[in-house]
Specification:
Layout: E1 5-9, H1 16-30, E2 37-41, H2 47-54, E3 59-63, H3 80-85, E4 90-93, H4 96-100, H5 106-119, E5 122-127, H6 131-135, H7 139-150, H8 156-159, E6 163-166, H9 180-197, H10 200-205, E7 207-211, H11 216-223, E8 230-233, H12 240-247
Parallel strand pairs: 1-2, 1-8, 2-3, 3-4, 4-5, 5-6, 6-7, 7-8
This protein binds 1,3-dihydroxyacetonephosphate (13P).
1,3-dihydroxyacetonephosphate (13P) binds at residues 9, 95, 167, 172-173, 211-214, 232-236.
Length: 252
């Protein structure tokens, strides 16, 4: 059984005070929940403050990005070891905003995934098609290419440590959620690709989150799909009640 996993991607929002308050609210409301993993991914400048709030509680901490090199002259970058040192367990890699706005390639994402795993972080690896790609019937091709490029060189044991997030670019921050059927179709395709590349039991063990305008009122339908194992939440993760309104739908 795959344990549901709901993560909040706060993107480039919050100030120190609101980040601490949001983390306190999530931590308080997540206490006592069982059968679900919950994490928040604040901007890197607030990881330390949020880690203090989350310490010894049920909510995991994740970063939104990292660099693949272990240390050195890479101005502005953070290594996997630094994120671990700050208390992170997770790191989002290959988010579509990094791919499309900041020009990250599958090869870049792949180096980061390997470095994150080597350091002991759990990568949340994002994949997803744009609207023109979907309309051209290329969704499966795009997913396959991103999957094989971003996850090249992972043995089965390493692969089983990652989380995949399917985030159709056209559904991110637009209010246009993929229907549960549209999302499930891609998740099932991903599960098949995983089984082809590894084995069926390996494919069955890896969690696939859906991301893209997940809200409390659509979370139940999305999370009830057999291959949707959680959510990567943007806008709705910025309010405690909205985020926890999603988390409750994942509790078994
Ligand atoms: P929204 O939930 O705001 O659409 O963002 C999704 C996302 O990009 C999470 O990583």
């Amino acid at each position: 059984m795959r344990r549901p996993f709901i993560a909040g991607n706060w993107k480039m929002t919050q100030d120190r005070r609101s980040a601490v308050a949001l983390a306190e609210g999530v931590s308080r409301q997540a206490a006592g929940l069982s059968g679900v993993d919950v994490a928040v991914c604040p901007p890197s400048c607030y990881l330390d403050a949020v880690a203090t709030v989350l310490a010894n509680g049920p909510v995991g901490l994740g970063a939104q990005n990292m660099y693949h090199e272990p240390n050195g002259a890479f101005t502005g970058e953070l290594s996997a070891a630094m994120l671990l040192d700050l208390g992170c367990r997770y790191v989002i890699l290959g988010h579509s905003e990094r791919r499309h706005i900041l020009g990250e390639t599958d090869a870049d994402v792949n180096k980061k995934v390997l470095a994150a795993l080597a350091a002991g972080l759990t990568p949340i690896v994002c994949l997803g098609e744009t609207l023109p790609e979907r309309e051209a019937g290329k969704t499966l091709d795009v997913i396959r290419t991103q999957f094989s490029g971003s996850l090249a060189g992972l043995g089965a044991a390493e692969f089983q440590k990652i989380v995949i997030a399917y985030e159709p670019v056209w559904a991110i921050g637009t209010g246009k959620t993929a229907t549960p059927e549209q999302a499930e179709e891609v998740h099932a395709d991903l599960r098949r690709i995983m089984a082809e590349c590894y084995t069926a039991p390996v494919a069955e063990s890896v969690r696939i989150q859906y991301g893209g305008s997940v809200k409390p009122d659509n979370a139940a339908d999305l999370l009830s799909q057999p291959n949707i194992d959680g959510a990567l939440v943007g806008g709705a993760s910025l309010k405690v009640d909205a985020f926890m309104g999603i988390v409750v739908h994942a509790v078994g």
